[in-house]
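# nightly structure sweep
# worker-07 picked up a monomer target from the shared queue
# config: single-sequence mode, recycle default, output format = structure tokens
# input follows
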Amino acid sequence: MYKRILAAVNEFTNSEIAARYAIALAKSSQAKLSLIFVAEDKLNRDAFRHAENALERLFIDAQDQDIEVESITEKGDPFEKISDIVRKGRIDIVFTATRREDIEKRYFTKTLAREFMVKLPCSVAMARIVRMGRTHPKNILVPLRGQMTHLEERGCFAARLAEVFNASVTLFHLSNPITSFFHGEIHLKPAQRDRRTPRDIEQFTECLYRYQIDHEKKTGYGAVSRSITIEAAHRRNDLIIMGASERSILRSIISGNPVEEVLRETPSNLIILKPRLEHL
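# output follows
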């Protein structure tokens, strides 16, 4: 699946934790791993040293796990440098960590995360770290909906991480209630909701079966972001894996963006995946 993985590291601890998910995926996929730190022009000496130390720790950890790994330090604009390496190195997926601006701004306006998600020609996994000590998940929550794109990559991404961590997976599908003219919304019973589960989600599970991942399916209803965060908190999931929203800006303004809402409220570590691989 993934042959070349790149993890962007900076002076903040959350980027080092996010890179450890990249190490796990590289190990599971037997992929080459590139660790990169791009120093911006105004970065002070202490911050530079923190990032360099993080690179060294990650490099040694990857080597100890027999992963083919390289460490790169550049100076300049992070997006431009990383974009250049992605194209020249034929990178399949980039791991990055959220910054405070990603959580505070709606639609990721003018943030580095949005640049990665929208403009990089490869897949992107953006991680928000809220639990520093939970980097080896045992229970992974994967919210799903109908009419998803890149089903094969989404399923295999979750399966590979679950495999290397020996974690179980909960597939969480939110079913819309049936609307009745006379009675308003009619909420279905669990068995009825299961029968209405989109075929897309059944295809997603094929990857989990292929890797022999222990998993279960759950359905629910209600506001998307709230239902996901409540489910994760109730089940004490260690990691949530969500797909990046494909909603337009106009639709986001009118009805909100569930991915951004979960990003702000998540009780667990969160990976937002923007899949772009056409062939696995």
